[in-house]
Fold this sequence. Notes:
The longest helix is centred in the middle third of the chain and has 13 residues, at about 150-160. By secondary structure, the protein is mostly beta strands. The chain has one domain (about 30-265). It is globular. It has helices at about 150-160, 200, and strands at about 30-45, 50-65, 65-80, 85-95, 100-110, 115-125, 130-135, 140-145, 165-170, 180-190, 190-195, 210-220, 225, 225-230, 230-240, 245-250, 255-265. Helices cover about 5% and strands about 50% of the residues.
Amino acid sequence: xxxxxxxxxxxxxxxxxxxxxxxxxxxxxxxxxxxxxxxxxxxxxxxxxxxxxxxxxxxxxxxxxxxxxxxxxxxxxxxxxxxxxxxxxxxxxxxxxxxxxxxxxxxxxxxxxxxxxxxxxxxxxxxxxxxxxxxxxxxxxxxxxxxxxxxxxxxxxxxxxxxxxxxxxxxxxxxxxxxxxxxxxxxxxxxxxxxxxxxxxxxxxxxxxxxxxxxxxxxxxxxxxxxxxxxxxxxxxxxxxxxxxxxxxxxxxxxxxxxxxxxxxxxxxxxxxxxxxxxx
Length: 280
């Protein structure tokens, strides 16, 4: 049974403007708190999963001057023929506004017992990314240039404004101890109106158009017989300010949905206009 990574979209993040190459400047990302209900969508013939339920709470704050902070907690209960299993994943990150410095902490619990803890920092320089892990052990790894999570969102919006709706990007999210970035293949559709329950949950923001996005994630070493096989893929609707809804995550043996049930927008700091001031 493949457990969900925390970096799905999480990928994981109102302005009243439509998307398009004619946009002169990027909309600022919106600080917000979002709560999603998790449910099972489908299972493969070989899967042992009979039911899935849970909740995901995501808090995002900051701006390009002070940097971006994300707090995420995802709790899921899997029911199988052998019994139930409770999974609890907690992630905290901080990324500077220029996308060159990233701090991360991730904890994974199974039935209230800590199974994995990953903590450290990463920097993006001229030679690529350098990651300094402090947990589960001290280690340093280096690999080619990659985006950190918030920079990935900003990159997507930049690509859309340039008219590019299919591209690939390397991403490091700090949720697991790895020695290379994850390759992400991104497909972005034309903006559409929301039609489901999330439209009401989002209030005035729900009246605006959202981009349909699909991301396929390729873990390091996923190439098989000359072909790249994605580890999992995620589809969702995304506003240009980073808010996501209608999330579906597909693994080889099961698929799950994250339905937005609560949304609390924060305030955008209008004094931030020139970019990052400092690191932490």
